[in-house]
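User: quick one, fold this
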Amino acid sequence: MSSIINVEVTPRKNEDIERTLKRFIKKVKKESIIETVRERQYYEKPSVVKRKKKKQRKATLDKLKVKRETS
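Assistant:
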């Protein structure tokens, strides 16, 4: 069910440690590791998850609808 994600960054030649750290953080954000950890921190019933997704979908569609009407 869960997949293991390994994020690895090797420092390049003459690369500053801050730059290497910045690349690492960028990869972690791209893989959405932090968001996954936050979501899995507490158990949510499947019905609650569905309700949240439905609410988010409706908000996105409403935003697009308003954007199209103003264009």
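User: anything notable?
Assistant: Residues 46-70 form the longest helix (25 residues).
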